[in-house]
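## retry 2 of 3
previous attempt timed out at serialization; input unchanged, resubmitting
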Amino acid sequence: MEVNMNYKLSPSDLTYLFEGCKYCFSLKVKYKIPQPSMPMPGIFSAIAGRQKVFYEMKRTEDFCKDLPPGTVEYGEKRVQSMPIKFSNSSNTCYISGRLDLVVKFNDGSFGVIDCKTASPSETKTKMYGRQLESYAYALENATEGYPSLSPITKLGLLYFEPIALEQVNETQQAFKGNLIWHEVRKDSNAFLEFLSDVVGILDSDEIYPQTCEHCEYCKVGNKCLAGKPKAFENGCTCCAWCVYRVKMREIDKDNSVPLINPKVEDSPLCPICNAHMIKRTGKFGEFWSCQRFPDCRGTRNITT
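## retry succeeded, writing output
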């Protein structure tokens, strides 16, 4: 009997990983194989912790005149939605993550704020909008045991842009910066349509191999494996990236293409395993692909 899936989707994965590499996104969500972690500098965690303490129970009038009157009620809360159903799939998904700040406005509605230490831009604001929509949906459709708040009427980013360094005393310095509010327009229907597309991708047997050609995470693993062709036969565990690629290979092995022995006319050699390459067509056009694909994901651009 087939068991229906309930995909766990984190707001950060929907923002960064899904856009960066749908192959890696599928591996993580469907097969619980996460990318090797890239350590985040501890200073950012320290800043986030200080912001939580600073804004707790603060009035919006005291730090952001662009927000309606209200009080910061929550900081760094975990949220989780009920399962989300779709008409085009028997599988479901749910949102699970941790938000930065929630404001309760004087009119009884709520706002979700994400704090960023960065220079603001419309591109960044648009990218983070999906993350904020995820938090809003989880709050308005919370599963039991998690914060349930409605209606969410405001979404936005509060940028802290450092512009100067001041000496407080002999042993202390302090950054001084601009505090800038960028609002994100809430569109629940568009967000649910996006989630429906995500579930459709996860339901598919395709793992989006072409996306991986442009994924920085996968490129690192490829570079490590370069010059070690036996790694594709015996596996290589010299580092976390190689282990990750071995796990990819296990997922792909049922669709593996046998190695073609004869040289393809005018084809270059694979930069990773030294096998001959063949032409394939991806979403960016034609490219050279290793004959060992998907066991080996070496690629080259076609030069004219």
